[in-house]
Design goal:
Layout (H helix, E strand, L loop, with lengths): L6 H24 L8 E3 L1 H18 L3 E5 L6 E3 L1 H18 L5 E5 L6
Parallel strand pairs: 2-4
Antiparallel strand pairs: 1-3
Helix pairs in contact: 2-3
Amino acid sequence: MRTKPPLIEFTKIIEDEIARLDTFISKFLSASVSEAEHAMTDINALMERIKVVTSFQAEACQVHVIYELGDIPPIKANAFQIGQAVMNVINNALKAMSSGGHLRLGLLLRKE
């Protein structure tokens, strides 16, 4: 049986995301998009946050989301933009799927 993330954890993440959005919008209005902050980002940690944030929506849609996190080293990136892109993909998938479906998200490291 799936366990639900605690409501307190969910609430804290939502508060953090609201603060992050507020900061992003303020910076967007005062600077160009090309000046977006890039910092070392733990993609697995970012995906864990997204998992908690989207869990209630997935449950409401009766979709089982499977996250397959990989051995991904930190990367220099804009965590906000990556997070927004991934959440957009998840939200679009949930809207397009039938109830009772499965959505699988995986992280792969491509070695060149």
